[in-house]
Amino acid sequence: MTDRVKGKVAVVTGGGSGIGRETALLLAREGATVVVVDIDEAGAEETAQLISGEGGTAGALSGDIGDPASIDAFVATIGEQHDAVDILVNNAGVFDNGQPFADSTGDDLDRVLRINVTGTFLVTKALLPMLLAAGGKAAVVNLSSVAAVIGNAGGVSYTTSKHAVHGMTKSLAIELGPQGIRVNAVLPGAIRTPMTAALLGPESPAVPVYEGVPAGRIAGPEDVAKVIAFLASDEADFVHGAGYVVDGGLTIV
Ligand SMILES: NC(=O)c1ccc[n+]([C@@H]2O[C@H](COP(=O)([O-])OP(=O)(O)OC[C@H]3O[C@@H](n4cnc5c(N)ncnc54)[C@H](O)[C@@H]3O)[C@@H](O)[C@H]2O)c1
User: Fold this and answer.
1) Which residue from 11, 13, 17, 227 has its CB within 8 A of the most atoms of ligand 1, so it is best to mutate?
2) Which residues does a 6 A CB cutoff place in the pocket of ligand 1?
């Protein structure tokens, strides 16, 4: 365990699986007290137990970022447990399974935007007083995607949502930076998690998606967690409003 975020309180939404779980584990290893929030309560509990098993400190909360009442409830609980939040990782999100436009409905778009965009907005807003209470050194990391750079990394709903998260990140950085809150985004490429298992299929050079990655491999969630932890730490104290692409070169070819 290192001390990069020692003494800080970190909230990770969607921390019950994939990138969120690896981020929660890494932040705890680096010294943070982690609040794991997930609509999947069992997943959140499991992450918190994994952290405790490694000697870290974590709590699990059930919460649906697509439901404003649920956000108010879990944020109120965080307020009862902590005086301030130093790190917020807006990681919870849903994919649209690369659905073709012709098969998509307005309801599909609404669902993806409600969770990926409105959820990120409302969680950040609800936690703003606690981020401001962090004494001028708070950090927010939003999970965007290479779907904010290229048009074919998801279906129309997902791609639209991740462009919005990227834009929200820049606007929030301008507004919140002077108040001591850094805001950045991470734009992962193809990462092997439960979200992408069906899409990526077995790991094999014969699968076309792997051929398009100059790094020659599909990443694991820990590859993204490392970048999130950096952005969340004071080592990144002049990194602000940025979008860190973590894609093994997928978007440069
Ligand atoms: N895996 C990839 O290739 C990839 C690429 C780019 C961006 N991302 C983004 O990274 C983030 C994490 O993705 P992942 O691949 O780890 O997915 P995942 O499905 O493994 O994990 C997502 C977690 O979010 C939770 N969640 C979903 N809806 C929620 C809600 N309404 N309220 C609270 N929690 C909710 C899920 O229960 C799950 O634990 C997402 O925002 C995703 O869009 C992933």
Assistant:
1) 17
2) 13-14, 16-20, 38-40, 43, 63-66, 91-94, 115, 143, 145, 188, 190-191, 193-196, 221
Q: Note the pLDDT tens digit of each residue in 163-210.
A: 999 999 999 999 999 999 999 999 999 999 999 888 887 665 555 556
Rounded to two decimals, what is the model's pTM? 0.97
Which residues face 159 on adjacent strands? Answer: none
All domains in the chain, ordered by first residue:
9-252 (3.40.50.720)
Burial (0-12, 13-18, 19+ Cβ within 10 Å), 37: buried
DSSP class of residue 193? S
Give 17 Cα–ligand 1 centroid separation in angstroms.
7
Residue type, 82: H
How many Å apart are CA 140 and CA 123, to the nearest integer? 11
Integer-rounded Cα radius of gyration of the chain: 17
Strand partners, 188: 246
Residue ID of nearest Cα to ligand 1 atom 14: 18
